[in-house]
UniProtKB/TrEMBL annotation, chain A:
Pathway: Protein modification; protein neddylation. GO terms for biological process: protein neddylation. Residues 336-420 form the E2 binding domain. It comes from Australozyma saopauloensis. Belongs to the ubiquitin-activating E1 family. UBA3 subfamily. GO terms for cellular component: cytoplasm; nucleus. This is NEDD8-activating enzyme E1 catalytic subunit.
UniProtKB/TrEMBL annotation, chain B:
One of its GO terms (biological process) is protein neddylation. It comes from Australozyma saopauloensis. One of its GO terms (cellular component) is cytoplasm. The lineage of its organism: Eukaryota, Fungi, Dikarya, Ascomycota, Saccharomycotina. Gene3D superfamilies: NAD(P)-binding Rossmann-like Domain (3.40.50.720). This is NEDD8-activating enzyme E1 regulatory subunit. Pfam families: ThiF (PF00899). The keyword Nucleotide-binding does not apply. Its main location: cytoplasm. One of its GO terms (molecular function) is NEDD8 activating enzyme activity.
């Protein structure tokens, strides 16, 4: 029973404290057993993932699966401490698992790695776990796992797998506990994410003012024009140099300063600043929630903690409310008001760009009649002519459509409540400008 | 790979926050941690990874089996060896650029050598050391303005207190920048630029690309004429609304289409500000540290900058140096680039004026002019955000005690976090006693807080009970949380670009809440 002797956590589990919600049912032995036997899934073995894995293993967790599709890059080493220079190029999930197996000489430790995208696994895989922890830096993967976990719960609350989610950006971060269908879900708070910085195409094409405009011109317009199908690869230094020189030439032509290689890389890769300490704070908070959840020693965060450290230290903890019209966990229909001149394509663009939707490959159907199907290809070809039709001719005011996405397991009821504005699209003044 | 290129790649994600200047300061910093344990290892990990110059662990103890539990940076093979050396070696594996030192000396002896301590940029105490030793340490560090941090981890809770004479931040990062545009007092070149636009003469496309700075300058001139005051600004809400509707939007040809006018209409609160010296900076000008006699004595670089800034403001008619940073706005490239040149030219002129004031000041005081160009540039860019706060010593907390005694009946989360802090301090002070029980602990809490025992409410007793029942300093999740917080504050202190905690922070891992106070 060597692993039972974990003197750093036994004082927390020996006696239920005054805040324990079910002190009568609490058993120290059961709590330790739960730590040893609960199967935990760690999604992401990056900056947050390394911290979270360390904390799990050193607070008694013994059955951990790690899933990550990424390989190790030199810029990871300023915070991802389970990796060394000799690991560059290897799978993060495999390298992290190997490190922990070497580090912990305990036969009861079962660490399994999965070097693949989370979307490659199905429900039967996820059903094996009692908790899912996310330490991801991308929104798409979190939306996908969130929608999957919410969708797995039945009306009797079977297959309920709590999801603990952490996220960081520079000196800021957040941790949250999502109990699928019970608390608000990731999708409920989509509109709280800071929107990705984008620049209007007409600015990039005609009136660049910032160094970023020149870089976007190089990557969005000039690279495809010059190199056709040859995709830009940010991991190839020569490609980055080339992109930088194209942007620099553009900047010179317009008298714009400060197009650096570092800025070029930041813009084309959409790099988010990251430091070890913020990851440590958010990861520890997530693991503390998982520890309380699995041992039942104390109540779990309800349900959102924001952290900000760029001016003194600030946290804000609150219960984020469920959205009745959340496309994942809500039941109510979502309403949108359209403009008279819109084609179906305009609606699709709104679904792709508006912060509350941000869908990648939306399809739209009306009571079983497909209006536009993004995938598979043959259905897209059959429906793509509809894109140029006026929306008002396809969907009457007050009529409902169902929106789905090839990348997300969701189905959203969308009500086109009314049509406003002129029948013909007003001409954009910017397009008149000759540069 | 070339080592400089390699370093740039390795630190890319953090240098985007504190730039190369901050990274250079980090790489020249030396942090000392007294006591080797999980929390100190976690703090140092967050400094070794981003590449701090040097760290030192002071501890006499050897590694026991119990030390291994919950500590990622100790292994079975370390049992029996020096804990300072073992943690140091395991941390150094994370980053070859960092130098780690283990000092196995008696703290009491080290405290006799104040020179030993003055080499550090920050000193952290992660476990109880004797009260008189802590006071001795603080006495050494305080006059040299070296921050001393005391960190506690207790069950599901943690706290940190910073003791430092004063904290100055010159190169401040503003998380939500406002722009100094001088729209209410345009200098001649800016006014002439605005006058060069005759809106009626422009075609529709040109009209929709007039930068909003020009729109404001024209609207403001019109507004001032109508209102009969040549220097006023629309400041009240009704004035701003009137200004937006009847002066800005009324100049548009089509408010639905002209994005520059839409932008102008939406940016009034941010862009149209009264240009002045912020009160926080004006206060610094009044400080005795800026006098000739004081400067001759201290030669303090910070106060020399403030004195020069003060002279700049009086010679410029009440203005700080112009930062010269222009936000993006709808415009043609040529108009924007020209406007940017006007702002940059003025900023450069201000910088040169400031530089000559600095040189004169140094000459008149008989000092060498050993300041660098980067410092001058940073001051001129950030003068409105210069931050100075005076700290307080670890024993001071009377303001918190009176807050606590006044609000005993309110069991708000805020007050209960304060109870946690004094509970942690009380428990810590019991550590030197051989045995104690809960009532003993509660009595100690009452002694420290001067709260009569019979006044303790049920929620307060629960907080104390929780601390007592789950009293361990080794719960990794709390050690790692506090290690992150302390690491973050040290990074802020040594890069000198972000405003650090002043001076007490408490975390409660049961409610997952935290709060900060300034204890005085
Ligand atoms: Zn939801």
């Amino acid at each position: 029973m060597q692993s039972l002797v974990n003197s750093s956590i036994t004082p927390l589990l020996n006696t239920p404290g005054p805040f324990n919600e079910f002190p009568g049912e609490f058993s120290p032995l059961e709590a330790v057993k739960a730590l040893k036997e609960t199967r935990v899934l760690m999604i992401g073995a990056g900056g947050l993932g390394c911290e979270i894995l360390k904390n799990l293993v050193f607070t008694g967790f013994r059955k951990i699966d790690i899933i990550d599709m990424d390989t190790i890059d030199v810029s990871n080493l300023n915070r991802q401490f389970l990796f060394r220079e000799s690991d560059i190029g290897k799978s993060k999930a495999e390298a992290a698992a190997a490190f922990l197996r070497r580090r912990i000489k305990d036969e009861s430790l079962e660490i399994t790695s999965h070097f693949c995208a989370i979307q490659e696994k199905d429900q039967s895989f996820y059903r094996q776990f009692s908790v899912v922890i996310c330490g991801l830096d991308n929104v798409e993967a979190r939306r996908w796992i969130n929608a999957l976990l919410v969708g797995m719960v039945d009306s009797a609350l079977n297959n309920l797998i709590p999801m603990v989610d952490g996220g960081t950006e520079g000196f800021r971060g957040q941790s949250r506990v999502i109990i699928p269908t019970v608390t608000s879900c990731f999708e409920c708070s989509l509109d709280m994410l800071s929107p990705k910085l984008t620049y209007p195409v007409c600015t990039i094409a005609n009136t660049p003012r910032l160094p970023e405009h020149c870089i976007e011109w190089a990557s969005q317009l000039e690279w495809p024009r010059r190199f056709g199908d040859r995709k830009f690869d940010a991991d190839i230094p020569e490609d980055v140099d080339l992109m930088h020189s194209i942007a620099l030439a553009r900047a010179k032509e317009f008298g714009i300063a400060n197009v650096t290689r570092s800025l070029t890389l930041g813009v084309v890769k959409n790099i988010i600043p990251a430091i070890a300490s913020t990851n440590a704070i958010i990861a520890a908070s997530c693991c503390n929630e998982v520890f309380k959840l699995v041992t039942s020693c104390n109540p779990v965060l309800d349900n959102y903690m924001m952290y900000s450290g760029d001016e003194s230290i600030f946290t804000y903890t609150y219960a984020h409310a469920k959205k009745a019209n959340c496309p994942v966990c809500g039941t109510e229909v979502r309403a949108i008001s359209a403009l008279r001149w819109w084609t179906l394509r305009n609606l699709i663009d709104v679904l792709k760009t508006k912060q509350e939707f941000l869908l990648k490959l939306p399809s739209v159907a009306k009571a079983d009649i497909p209006l536009y199907i993004a995938l598979p290809e043959h259905l897209r070809l059959l429906t793509e002519n509809n894109l140029n039709m006026k929306l008002i001719d396809l969907v009457s005011p007050g009529e409902e459509v169902v929106v789905t996405d090839a990348n997300l397991p969701i189905s959203m009821r969308l009500l086109v409540s009314k049509y406003d504005g002129p029948d013909v699209e007003p001409q954009d003044i910017s397009s008149l400008l000759k540069s | 790979m070339d080592s400089e290129i390699h370093k740039a790649a390795r630190y890319d994600r953090q240098v985007r926050l504190w730039q190369r200047g901050g990274q250079a300061r980090l790489e020249h910093s030396h942090v000392c941690v007294i006591n080797g344990n999980t929390t100190s290892a976690e703090i140092l990990k967050n400094l070794v990874l981003p590449g701090i110059g040097e760290f030192t662990i002071v501890d006499l103890k050897t590694v026991s089996d119990a030390d291994l539990s919950g500590n990622f940076f100790l292994t079975e093979t370390d049992v029996g060896s020096s804990i300072a050396e073992a943690i140091c070696a395991n941390l150094c594996e994370l980053n070859a650029d960092v130098r780690g030192n283990a000092v196995r000396e008696d703290l009491l002896k080290l405290l006799n050598d104040s020179g030993f301590w003055r080499r550090f940029d920050v000193v952290v105490v992660t476990e109880r050391i004797r009260k008189e030793q802590l006071e001795r340490l603080e006495g050494i560090l305080w006059p040299h303005n070296i921050p001393l941090m005391r960190v506690w981890t207790c069950g599901f809770s943690g706290a940190v207190r910073i003791s430092r004479f004063e904290t100055a931040v010159v190169d401040t990062h503003d998380p939500s920048p406002t722009f100094d545009l001088r729209l209410d007092c345009p200098w001649p070149e800016l006014a002439a630029y605005a006058d060069s636009f005759d809106l009626d003469e422009l075609d529709d496309a040109e009209h929709a690309h007039v930068p909003y700075i020009v729109i404001y300058l024209k609207a403001l001139e019109h507004w001032r004429k109508t209102n009969g005051s040549l220097l006023a600004l629309p400041l009240s809400y009704p004035e701003k609304t009137d200004f937006r509707r009847n002066y800005v939007e009324s100049m548009a040809r089509n408010m639905g289409l002209e994005t520059n006018f839409i932008e102008a209409s939406q940016s009034i609160h941010r862009a149209l500000q009264k240009t002045n010296v912020p009160a926080s900076v004006a206060e610094l000008f009044q400080r005795p540290e800026t006098s000739d006699s004081s400067l001759r004595e201290t030669k303090a670089p910070f106060w020399l900058l403030i004195r020069a800034l003060k002279e700049f403001v009086s010679s410029s008619g009440g203005f700080l140096p112009l930062p010269g940073v222009l936000p993006d706005m709808v415009s043609t490239t040529s108009s924007y680039v020209l406007l940017q040149q006007i702002y940059r030219k003025k900023a450069l002129e201000d910088k040169l004026t400031f530089l000559s004031i600095m040189l004169e000041l140094h000459e008149s005081l008989g000092f060498e002019s050993d300041f660098d160009a980067e410092t001058i540039a940073n001051v001129c860019k950030n003068s409105a955000l210069i931050h100075l706060s005076n700290g307080s010593q670890l024993n001071n907390h009377n303001n918190l005690l009176s807050r606590l005694s006044k609000s005993l009946e309110q069991s708000s989360d805020h007050n209960l976090l304060l109870v946690s802090y004094f509970g942690i301090v009380a428990l810590d002070s019991l550590a030197e006693q051989e045995s104690h029980d809960f009532s003993h602990f509660v009595q100690t809490f009452c002694d420290i807080t001067r709260v009569p025992l019979q006044n303790l409410t049920e929620p307060i007793k629960n907080v104390l009970n929780e601390l007592y029942i789950h009293n361990t300093s080794r719960y990794l999740n709390v050690c790692s949380y506090m290690g992150g917080i302390v690491g973050q504050e040290i990074l802020k202190i040594v890069t000198a670009q972000y405003i650090p905690l002043d001076n007490l922070y408490v975390f409660d891992g049961i409610k997952s809440m935290s709060e900060k106070w300034k204890a005085l």
